[in-house]
Amino acid sequence: MKQEKIKAFFENYMKDYCRYAQEESTIDLAEKYWDIKIRARAFMKMADGTYPIVCDGRDQWKEYLIKSHIDITEETTIKEMVIDVKDLKAALVLDIRKYDRKTKELKQVFDGLGLYRLTKQKDKLKILELDFYCGDPGGFTHLHEL
After folding, report:
1. CATH number of the structural domain 3-136
2. Of 71, 112, 117, 143, which residue is the least packed, with the fewest Cβ within 10 Å?
3. Sequence ranges of the domains in the chain
4. Which of 68, 60, 132 is nearest to 101 (CA)?
5. pTM (predicted TM-score)
6. Is residue 52 reached through a cis peptide bond, with omega within 30 degrees of 0 on the bond before it?
7. C-alpha span between 12 and 21 (Å, rounded)
């Protein structure tokens, strides 16, 4: 596996995440990036005190993404990327912009850090684990309705 292939995987993933993974009608188009056993942890505190948010499996991950984007949409771009080719891991520094779904008003801008572990299946990469951290773990959760 070459670094360029992993870099291209994440560049395509972020584009498709923004385009497809925030809508119930299109989320299946982003499914190709996630292993069926994906474990995603978001280290942010929800209004009900949940911390961290943990999703075990692709179906639970998809359900979380749909529910957490009912009132908002987000635009996520990669600012920096560090890739470990040997262990199929990557760290991505992200620029995240959250918008009101109805008015399109920009609600928040912050940096995030995604730590990813990939798996290779039939020469295709998939995300097996994701740990997500943001600059203010409690600052934007009020935007999400779960």
Report:
1. 3.10.450.50
2. 71
3. 3-136
4. 68
5. 0.89
6. yes
7. 13
User: What's the Cα-to-Cα distance from 119 to each of 85, 91, 123, 125, 136, rounded to whole Å?
Assistant: 11, 15, 10, 6, 30
Please write the tens of the pLDDT for every residue from 81-131: 999 999 999 999 999 999 999 999 999 998 999 999 999 998 899 999 999
Residue located via tokens 């070459």: 2
String of DSSP letters for the chain: --HHHHHHHHHHHHHHHHHHTT-TTTGGGTGGGEEEEEEEEEE---TT---SEEEESHHHHHHHHHHTTSSEEEEEEEEEEEEETTTTEEEEEEEEEEEETTT--EEEEEEEEEEEEEEEETTEEEEEEEEEEESSTTTSGGG---
